[in-house]
Amino acid sequence: MLEDIKNNDDIRAFVDSFYNKVRQDALLGPVFSGAIKGDWQPHLDKMYAFWDSVLFSVPGFSGNPFAKHVPLKIDSTHFDQWLVLFDETIDAGFAGPVATETKTRARLIAGIFISRLKYMG
């Protein structure tokens, strides 16, 4: 039986697993490898802090995630695939209210980004 997302260790586990999938994905891999040159750890560290902030209100995240996406050549197809991989990752490792909330938050964030990118385009 899978446990729920409880802490930063769980966040690290799902973020690492998710971005391993992203790197190998035919659609998303090239986008990310074009944006993240070399060392992925700074990006992963930001994502640990981001999800810790979103899920557990832990201070420590700073930045503007949307601004990082503006220069990328992405559209709703990319976000759809991002959500497929994200949901697969969460569902493979976790079950419970926080896991469900994590997927809900990811959908909300993706929806906002898609909407804002369309508005800017």
Q: What does this 3D model show about the protein?
A:
The longest helix is centred in the C-terminal third of the chain and has 24 residues, at 97-120. α1 packs across α2 (28-35), α1 packs across α3 (41-56) and α5 (76-93) packs antiparallel against α6. 73% of the residues lie in helices and 0% in strands. The chain has 121 residues and is mainly α. It has a single domain, classed as Globin-like, CATH 1.10.490. The protein has helices at 8-24, 28-35, 41-56, 65-69, 76-93, 97-120. It has six helices and no strands.
Full CATH superfamily name:
Globins
Second-tier CATH architecture: Orthogonal Bundle
Main sheet: strands, sense, barrel = none
Shape: globular
Mean of pLDDT: 95
Question: What is the succession of H and E elements?
Answer: HHHHHH
The rounded distance between the terminal residues' Cα atoms is 45 Å
- Poorly predicted spans: none
Blueprint of the fold:
Elements: H1 8-24, H2 28-35, H3 41-56, H4 65-69, H5 76-93, H6 97-120
Helix pairs in contact: 1-2, 1-3, 1-5, 5-6
Outline of this structure?
This protein has helices at 8-24, 28-35, 41-56, 65-69, 76-93, 97-120.
